[in-house]
Every structure is written in C-alpha cells, then in structure tokens.
Design brief:
Layout (H helix, E strand, L loop, with lengths): L2 E6 L4 H4 L4 H8 E2 L8 E6 L5 E5 L6 E2 L15 E7 L4 E5 L2 E5 L4 E4 L6 E5 L8 E7 L7 E3 L5 E5 L8 E7 L10 E7 L5 E2 L3 E3 L3 E8 L7 E7 L2 E7 L3 E5 L6 E4 L4 E8 L8 E3 L6
Parallel strand pairs: 1-3
Antiparallel strand pairs: 2-21, 3-4, 4-11, 5-10, 6-9, 6-11, 7-8, 7-10, 9-12, 13-14, 14-15, 15-23, 16-22, 17-24, 18-21, 18-23, 19-20, 19-22
Cofactor: Zn(2+)
Keywords: Isomerase, Metal-binding, Plasmid, Zinc
Pathway: Glycan metabolism; pectin degradation; 2-dehydro-3-deoxy-D-gluconate from pectin: step 4/5
Length: 280
Amino acid sequence: MTTQMSTRYAIGQQEVKTFTTQALRDAFLCADIMCADQINLVYTHYDRFIVGGAVPIKQPLTLENLDALKADFFLQRRELGVINVGGAGKVIVDGVEYELAFKEALYVGQGQQQVEFASLDAEQPARFYINSAPAHTAYPTKKVGLFDGNVLEIGSQQTSNERKVHQLLVNGVVETCQLQMGVTCLQPGSVWNTMPAHQHDRRMECYFYFEVPADQAVCHFMGEPQETRHIWVANEQAVVSPPWSIHSGSGTANYSFVWGMAGENLAYDDMDFHQPNELR
C-alpha cells in the first residue's frame, strides 16, 4: 500500500509538564508526512483529526481505505481538506478532476468513494497537504483559490508579525461539518505568527509550516499560557495542538503555514487571547 497511517493518542496538560524535548517531539511533531510517491497520515485522538501529505511523482496516488478507520472507504464518515504546497497538480474525486495550483485548496465532502492525487509535471511535483475530520453530513466538493476566500491583512512590521491570512475552507466560504483550513503568509521582515497567542477549548488545531528556507527553522510554542513549551520545526513539518494549548511560532526568517481545525465550533474568531506579557 502507498497509504500509511500512524496514531497519536491524546495527552493532557499535567503529563506534558514532565516531558523531555524528545518526548514533546514524539507526541506532537509530525516530521515525515511529505514523502515521494507516498501518502503519509497521522491519526490523532484530538477530535479524531487526521493530518498528512501526498507527493505523487511517478504515478497518481490513491487515498486507500485503512483498517484502522473501520469503514468501507476512507470518506464514508469523514470530510477532507487539501492544500497544494508544491507544483501544479490535480485531485480526482470520483472521476471529477480538480486542478490545484500553489496554495489552492479543495474541500471533499463525506461519501466520496475514490480520491486520487496526481502531479502535472513530475519534475515539479505537487505536494498535497491533507487534513480530515469526522463528518455527519455530505457537503459538495469545492475548489477554493488563494484569493477566493477571505483575506485578512493583520499585524505590523513594528511588531514583526505583518501577515496575510487566507481563509479558504472556512464557514461562509465552503460548507463543512467541522473542518476549517487556511494559509497564513508572513511578510518579509516579519517572523511571529498568531501573536497575541490564543487557545480555543472547543476545537483542536494543527499547524503545517512551509516555505521555510532549508537553513532556517521555526520555533513553535505550545502548552498552557503559564506553562509554555517549544518545538523546533523544519520545512514541511506539522505540529498538533491540543485544545488546552496555545499555538504560536517565531521563525529565523519569514515563512508560511497552513492552519487546520476541527471541533464543535465553526466561528473563526472563537479564541481566548493571551497577551505576550502574560505568557510564562
């Protein structure tokens, strides 16, 4: 099989206070999800969220059904979000092709039985970042371009966090059950994302960092506001954020990241903020 999936179980605040650096990375960092000619997935027990990647080069990749899902096909009880962070590609959903350029997104509704990923040019392959969450209703499959959703320009150069937030697969743009996704792009000279930091106890979130230069890195901050921890992240790596944790980051150069969420609330601004001088 070209589709592989590992499992991460939920971990509470008290446990994390005792973790070493490696234990934190083992629990929350998804380091190897973009591999040539494979679909690599991580099943988390935070809202049953799945995070992963598909990199088709030699041939298209099919999202195969997995025994762990106890389903007849992958999307029998799930919805899927895809954002292309590589060369031009296409996603084929039950025979219908959707071409995705760099940073374009696709929502695939519950009940679609076959999903394939393909690159238009093997020399510049597509790199599909994938999120999936449980679904209770079948909504239509829909493509969303980088500027087809809501675009927020927030932050400033003075606070090193000038950024554009592209709300792609969100309430008001696409009908979903609970999955929400978008892309945030840090502008040159800015390195801080999601500052002031926040939590949202009603849903979990996952950050996928990309456009990180090969010789640079991002320091991802997590944990309770008064008990923060950090994980150093390289290009095309993701960090799973539990509902009790803040999620913020600072890079050694500007970068972009995909944010994906699932839970009971579709309101993007459902956030409990913590100012920088309140963090410990």
